[in-house]
Amino acid sequence: MPDFASSQYRIVENAKLDARNTFGVAARAPMLVEVAHTDALPELFGYAMLREGPVLVLGGGSNVLLAGDPQGVVLALTAQSIALVEDDGDTAIVRADAGVEWHALVLWTLGHGLAGLENLALIPGTVGAAPIQNIGAYGVEVRDSIHAVHAFDRTTRTMTSLTPAQCAFAYRDSVFKHDPDRYVVTAVEFRLSRATRVRIDYAGVGDELAAMGIDTPRASQVAEAVCRIRRRKLPDPAVIGNAGSFFKNPIVPYAQAEALVAAHAHAPVFRGADDDTRKLSAAWLIDQCGWKGFREGDAGVAPSHALVLVNHGRATGAELLSLARRIAASVHERFGVAIEPEPRIVGGSW
Ligand code: FAD
Ligand code: EPU
């Protein structure tokens, strides 16, 4: 039962967050505000508790670790519309509200014959969170398609729009991560194409399409191939709590990557953002340290993927954080490489 409800928002005090994070850890927020109409944001942020106190914007909770209860207000945006705002037959601009489920948007765009998001199929969470860490998978990042990010700016208490350049996107990074208390993303616009220039060079995608008997794939078939790979590789949060990759793949100087390969010929090394850096595989580093399938109480590492921390049932956020720290320490000790968490850690710190 809400403690207050208007046509634009509802407030629940002492709200349970267990079903609002895909790790499924138990937590409570002193106050949860669910906002159906973003027009209400300037008014809401006029109240001292939101204007001055900590506010955690929560989407699907698939990239957070609630290591403790969040302090202050948890804000959830629930608006759900998707619309074509421009369409010249070749390219189109699609606008989706922050509360739309990401995979539902991918299916919507494919259903309208628009390509661009197919490699990002089946990533959990909401549209509003997609720009935060610049979601990426199978050779594509969401920045490749973002036209504009609409947001409420807490510093000016006005609605604003950011261009892709202002978002400062990088691998699992953006301005929103560096200034987490400033913006509430309200909607995102995507520039998508009706041309069928699909991207299938990422390891495994071409093989999956071949196994499906497809040699000139359409965007929707690439999405299907990606879904098949993901279902095989990644544990389903509906079955076992997890937040996908728990660590980012570390980006190191070229010379450090060379030294790693000299010592371990099979270490996977990928191109970095420029010629001077390389991206290492955090999964491989963790796997080499023997963590895959590890379990202590209900906190563990997925048997199918060394990068995924799992909650077998009643693990606390603090237990998962403590396990993550031990994993990172062992990787650092063995390889001299620092790995960092991908999810936002709430109620605790790295
Ligand atoms: P939340 O977890 O609720 O929030 C994540 C962050 O975004 C928090 O800092 C939160 O405060 C902020 N935030 C959320 N909404 C807003 C908003 N409207 N305005 C401002 N800030 C906001 N990620 C990838 O990049 N690639 C993958 O392939 C991938 N695979 C995954 C697979 C699994 C099984 C799981 C569980 C996760 C995976 N993820 C992946 C991580 C996750 O799905 C994405 O980061 C997703 O974008 C998080 O969306 P969310 O709505 O759940 O965000
Ligand atoms: N590997 C191991 N052991 C394992 C798993 C993988 O050694 O247990 C090695 C494999 O040899 C492979 C390499 O690690 O060569 C990379 O594995 P994978 O292709 O599964 O990719 P990843 O680096 O583990 C990244 C993203 C995923 C994204 C996939 C597909 C990060 C942190 N993770 O995973 O994103 O779906 O690529 O593009 O960049 C997420 O962010 O939550 C996420 C799931």
From TrEMBL:
GO terms for cellular component: cytosol. It catalyses: UDP-N-acetyl-alpha-D-muramate + NADP(+) = UDP-N-acetyl-3-O-(1-carboxyvinyl)-alpha-D-glucosamine + NADPH + H(+). SUPFAM superfamilies: FAD-binding/transporter-associated domain-like (SSF56176), Uridine diphospho-N-Acetylenolpyruvylglucosamine reductase, MurB, C-terminal domain (SSF56194). It is found in: Cytoplasm. Pfam families: FAD_binding_4, MurB_C. Pathway: Cell wall biogenesis; peptidoglycan biosynthesis. Residues 25-195 form the FAD-binding PCMH-type domain. The keyword Cytoplasm applies. PROSITE patterns: FAD_PCMH. Its cofactor is FAD. Its EC number is 1.3.1.98. Transmembrane segments: none annotated. One of its GO terms (molecular function) is FAD binding. Its main location: cytoplasm. The active site is at residues 172, 245, 342. It comes from the Bacteria. GO terms for biological process: cell division; cell wall organization; peptidoglycan biosynthetic process; regulation of cell shape. Keywords: Cell cycle, Cell division, Cell shape, Cell wall biogenesis/degradation, Cytoplasm, FAD, Flavoprotein, NADP, Oxidoreductase, Peptidoglycan synthesis. Cell wall formation. Belongs to the MurB family. This is UDP-N-acetylenolpyruvoylglucosamine reductase. The gene is murB.
